[in-house]
Design a protein that fits this description.
Layout lengths: L1 H19 L2 H25 L3 H27 L13 H9 L3 H12 L6 E2 L7 E2 L4 E2 L5 E3 L4 E3 L4 E3 L4 E3 L4 H31 L6 H33 L3 H5 L3 E2 L2 E2 L8 H9 L23 H4 L36
Antiparallel strand pairs: 1-8, 2-3, 4-5, 6-7, 8-9
Helix pairs in contact: 2-7, 3-6, 6-7
Length: about 325
Amino acid sequence: MRRGWKMALSAGLRCCRRVLSWVPVLVIVVVVLWSYYAYVFELCLVTVLSPAEKVIYLIFYHAIFVFFTWTYWKSIFTLPQQPNQKFYLSYTDKERYENEERPEVQKQMLIDIAKKLPVYTRTGSGAVRFCDQCHLIKPDRCHHCSACAMCVLKMDHHCPWVNNCIGFSNYKFFLQFLGYSVLYCLYIATTVFSYFIKYWRGELPSVRSKFHVLFLLFVACMFFVSLVILFGYHCWLVSRNKTTLEAFCTPVFISGPKKNGFNLGFIKNIQQVFGDNKKFWLIPIGSSPGDGHSFPMRCMNESQNPLLADEEYWGDNDYDNPDYPEGSSSLAVETET
């Protein structure tokens, strides 16, 4: 009976957590809907008197609004991509691994399995990266998301504002969402500012629209400052071909840690996210090259171009702690917590 109550309580808590995880998204949706009403109706249709100015404002506003909401939708509802089946331990290997009590034998088992896979990154201690929750050998740049309870290919971070894990499948959409958000806020702020001044000087009557126009400028400026910083940071990450996790914890290769292990040069780094076809760069359509399981590496180009070689190895990195990047294990094999 007591066990049944515990299971019911656990299920109830999980349900509450799922519901609460949508609260940040709901907040954003409410703010966006209000901004639409305030700009279209209270500013353009009520406050702006010139018909030509109304048309111009509305055309450009709706063009930006469409891409802004489209990219936000794609960021929320594009599911994170998981590793394919060949990276999971087979039933036999899983049984052998779990029944084996000797750490060195477990380590060797994972090394033997990893030899058959395109895996070139390791833990901080040089062991094979293994997730003991999903029972898989992690592909390069793959990490376990505790919020999503799964391993995500090229995981960047879990974003509560989209209630989704940002990774290989939706990082392009997330970056576009940030860019169009910045443009959306900037456009509102610049077009509202002149009417803000008129209300401030008393050149326009103090009606209901005054509150919406004044508050619209304040909200647009507030979001613009925070978003432009976040967007700038992710642009820097793209220019270096890094994820947020890799920026905080240097990826470790078979030869050792390399800060620029995936850095292919500015143009190729951008193409790794947006693809080769530039006409798709601004449109939220999947165009990232590859399948998310393996990526071109700087070290593989060094023999072809010696100028790419760099010597960022073990000496200048802190790897006394084997936690990389999500968990630790006394087995010298990366596990998830």
